[in-house]
C-alpha cells in the first residue's frame, strides 16, 4: 500500500508522500513552531503560518490545500471564549428538558395511541440547542430584529419540552403530540410544520435537504432586503441545525457555493455529527466530520470542528509525540460508535491501548472517568466558544461540526445503537436509569404506577432555574421559535397598471408569455407597490423576454458588478447591482424555489411583504422541485409561480424533456397552489389582480389562512392576436375557472367546446369550421382553471354528503354550463386527465382531447395533428358525438376525417411557427 493511502480519506496529504531529506533540519523548524506557540500562543502562530504559506505561494513553492485538519477541536484552548452563564443552573434545567422530551414521545407510544416520535436525536443535541437558546438565538423583540432558526426536524420534542418549561405549552399540549385532530386545541405537530402550528414554527425542515437549502436562501433574502433598503437586517443571524446523515442529500450540499460567493457571514450551519443516520453509521469505514470539513472548506466556508470536550484537554496537552492525535485521526466512525455502546474498560483497551504512550496517559483514570470523556457537542464551554466564533467571523458563512452521541444519556439500550432512531419506548429500567442519570425528583412509585404515563417534571415558574431561563429569553428578545404574521401595510396597484393587459396586442402577435412580461413590467413600475416585487428566474430570462428588465431593475448581486460587461453598449445590457431587484439563480431551479420561499414568507419572517414571481420552464417546475413547493406551502409562502413555455406541443424543436403535458396535474396535488391556464393577457391580469388582493388586500386579517396561497399560471411562447378585454367581462368566471368566451353564431345542432390556454384559439377556429362546413352551432368556453373548478365541485359534493336533507350547493362549473346543451368537447395542450378533472360534474356527454404520452421534436402543427388535439380533431370529435345522437348525418365524421386528412401528420394546420423556444 502506498504511503498515506490508508489514511487518504481522513487527512489531507501534506508530508506522507514526500521524502524527508534532512530530518534534523525538519526537527529544528518544528521545534521553532512549538516554541512560538508556547511563548506567544496559537493566534500568533496562525498568523506566522498564514504568512509563510502566502510567501510560499508567491515563490511558486507548491503547497497542497489543507482540506482537513487533525481530528481535534478547531479552536485552541487558549482562544476559547469564556462561558458567560451559570453552567450548573443551565445543566439542571437541560436535564429536565431532556426528560420531558423523552417522556412526551414515550407517552405517545402507549397502546391505545402509538403515534410514534423520536427520542434519540434531541437527547444527543440538547447541549447544541441550549447553548443557543440561553446565549445566542434572538427573538423577534430583539432590537436587531431577531434570528431565524431552522431546527432539525427529528429534534422537535426538545423544542416542545422547552416551550413547556417556558409556560407556552401545558401538559395537555404535550399529550397532544402527533394527534392534531383528535386533540385539536391541544395538539402538537410531529415535526416543525408552520402550517399546522402557525404561531410557533417558522421553518419546515424534516424533508431532508430542503432545510439547509432554504436556510442559505433565507440568509441571502435577509441581505437582499437590507441591500435594497427595505429593512435593516444587519444584526440578524440564520442558524440551521442539520444531521450528518442529512448532509448526504444533494440539496444539503449543492448550494454551498452561493453562501460563499455572497459572503453570507450571517449564516451558521450546525451539523450534529452523531456519526449515525437512520439505519446505521453515516461513514462506518470513514470519518464524516473530516469529509464535511473538506467539503465545506473547499466550498469557501469557515469550518469549526467541536470534536472533544474539556476532559480531553489535559490528555491532548500531554500528547507530545502525537500518538493520541494519530489514533483519533485513524479511528473510523464505526469504531467510535461502538466505543459509546460499550464501556470505559472497553475504551481503555481498544482505543487508548493501541500504543504504550496512550495507554500510559490514562493509567491514573478509572474506567468511569474514561467513560465520561465527553464528545465536544456535549460540552457547554466548547459549544459556546464555537458559536461565539461563528457569529463574530466576517466574510464567510460558518459551519460548526459538533461531535455528539445519538441517544446520549438514554442508557445502554439507546446510546449509539444502530436502531436508536426508530426506538420510541423506554422500559421501566430505562426510565429509572434515565431519571437517575438526570437527577429528576420523581419516585420509583410514580414510574411503576403506569409504565406509559411517567410524569413530566416542572419545578414551577417561580423556581430559580426557570426564572434564570426566562431572564435569558427576555434578554435575547423573546421566545424562539415563534412565528408572527402581522406585517406592514401593502398598497396594491391601481386600475391603470392593468391597462396593458386589457388592451390586447392590436395588430401585433404576442404570446401570453410576452403579455405577462408586459404586465409585470408595469407592476414593477408602480411607485408604491413595485419595490415589493421580487422577480426570480433561473438562467432563462432571455428565453422569456425578461432581458428587458436587466438595465433598469438590475440583477441582485451583493458584490455588485466589478467587470466590464461585454454587452455594455446594448440597450438590453446585462447589469448586476448590490441593490438589484431580480434574483437570478443561474441554472438552479431548486435554489430558485428556495429564493421564492424566502421572499414569499418575508411578511412573517420580517413583517415586510415581498411578492415573489418565479418564472421558469413549466416542465422544470413541479416535476423537478415538487418537494420544495410542498415545503413552501408548509411555510405558508405567498406569491406567483409562472410556468412559461407551457404545453406539450408549443416548444416545437425542444422535444421530450421540454414538453410539459402534466404540470397542472402535479400542481393540483398541492392544496396551497391555485392553478390557472389562461389564454389571453387580460385573463392573466384578472388572475394576478385577484391573487394580490387575496394575499394582501383589504377585508381579511393578516393571519387569515386563506391568504397563504401560491398562484401557478401557465403561459405560452406561441404568438397569437391578443384581444382586448370584452366590455362585459365575466371576472368571476375567470377567477373561478370558466366563462363563456364566444357564443355560437348560427342555429344548428348544438355542441360546447371547452378549452384552456393555447388551445382556446383552436377552439374558436373549430367553431368557425363546424359552422361553415357542417352547419353545427358551437359555444366556446375559456376554462382558466380546471383544477379550481374541480376543487369547488368536490367541496360542494362534500357539503352535500355531510348535510343530508339540506339543499345541495350547485358547483360553479355546473352553474355556468346549466343552459349549455349538446355534447362537450374539452381540449387542452396537456394530457386528457387535466380536463377530465371536471367530467363527473357536467351532465353533458363529455370527451377530452389532449396530448398524452411523451413529447417530441417537430412543428407545432404536426405535433397537434399527431396528438389529435388540433382544430380538425375538435371538429371531428364534435361530429362523432352529434352523429351518435342523430343530430348530424351518420357519415359526417368519416367524411370529415377524409376531408381534413386527420391521419396525416403533415396535413395539420393548427398554430404557427413563430416564437422562440
From TrEMBL:
What residue spans carry the Polar residues bias annotation? 9-18
* Position of the signal peptide: none
Q: Which residues form a coiled coil?
A: none
Task: Name the coenzymes or cofactors required.
Answer: thiamine diphosphate
Top-level enzyme category: oxidoreductase
| Protein name as it appears in the record | Pyruvate dehydrogenase E1 component
Q: Where is the Transketolase-like C-terminal domain?
A: 737-868
Q: Which domain of life is it from?
A: Bacteria
Region entry Disordered, spans = 1-25
Which reaction equation describes what this protein catalyses?
Answer: N(6)-[(R)-lipoyl]-L-lysyl-[protein] + pyruvate + H(+) = N(6)-[(R)-S(8)-acetyldihydrolipoyl]-L-lysyl-[protein] + CO2
Record keywords, A-Z: Oxidoreductase, Pyruvate, Thiamine pyrophosphate
Q: Does the keyword Protein biosynthesis apply?
A: no
An MF annotation (GO) of this entry: pyruvate dehydrogenase (acetyl-transferring) activity
Q: Does the keyword NAD apply?
A: no
Q: Where is the Pyruvate dehydrogenase E1 component middle domain?
A: 494-721
- InterPro entries with a match to the protein in the record: PDC_E1_N, PDH/Transketolase, PDH_E1, PDH_E1_M, THDP-binding, Transketo_C/PFOR_II, Transketolase-like_C_2, Transketolase_N
Q: Where is the Transketolase N-terminal domain?
A: 127-311
